[in-house]
Amino acid sequence: MSIIARNNIKISGNGDRPILFIHGFGCDQAMWRYVTPHFEDGFRVITIDQVGAGGSDLTAYDPQKYSSLNGYAADIGEIGTELGLRNGILVGHSVSAMIGTLASIAAPEMFDTLVLVAPSPRYIDDGDYEGGFTSGDIEELLEAFDENPLAWSASMGPAIMGNPDRPELGQELAESFCRTDPEIARQFARVTFTSDNRADLPHVTARTLILQCRDDFIAPEAVGIYIHERIPGSELVLLDATGHCPNLSAPDAVVHAIKAFV
Questions:
Q1: Which among 60, 146, 204, 205 is most buried, taking Cβ atoms within 10 Å?
Q2: Number of structural domains, the chain?
Q3: Annotated active-site positions, please?
Q4: Is the pTM higher than 0.85?
């Protein structure tokens, strides 16, 4: 199995410096379609589907390998090796912000710049740490998914997207959730919402931009501040955007912030 086919890798653009975009839980590379065209002039733009998502090779899914975010981060390293990436930019949304963080720590020569869009190193509150959810909240969320993935998607898509005045965005996210294989999505949801990558943050050496939204149901502002305080030299930008998916709801703001940083 080729790595290109495994992750449904697409490459465009006319530049030399690579910029790799990684999507979040329940999504695929189409979630970047309003952002990536703005980088094709001057960059080598790379988009992928995580194994289990979009047009990836579902036969490559290994429950043991992907029982932690490290399995997905290992894939990013393999992609970087396959494509010969050096001094690249890695843009990760939601859980893939932490997947990208782990990948950059493991292979700093591949990615010297990180852009973390709506990231969270831990979704569950812990002492003074405010992740946004109690452990009971997360268990209820995961149990609801187990019981009825379609109903979960229909309710959580709009909640995660925010922007209730633009219901078509929440509908698109819900439909994206529904397209994901339910067994794979079930495990990825548990891995996503129970992970704790707080201890990894101080080990980041890449230049790092953190993009935060207002009224983010999944990653509240306190989480963005926490990451900013623990990744050395990082920059935190509060976008003029709401919800958890500014790559869909406010792509111009995302493009502007990334271009200003890189």
A1: 204
A2: 1
A3: 94, 216, 244
A4: yes
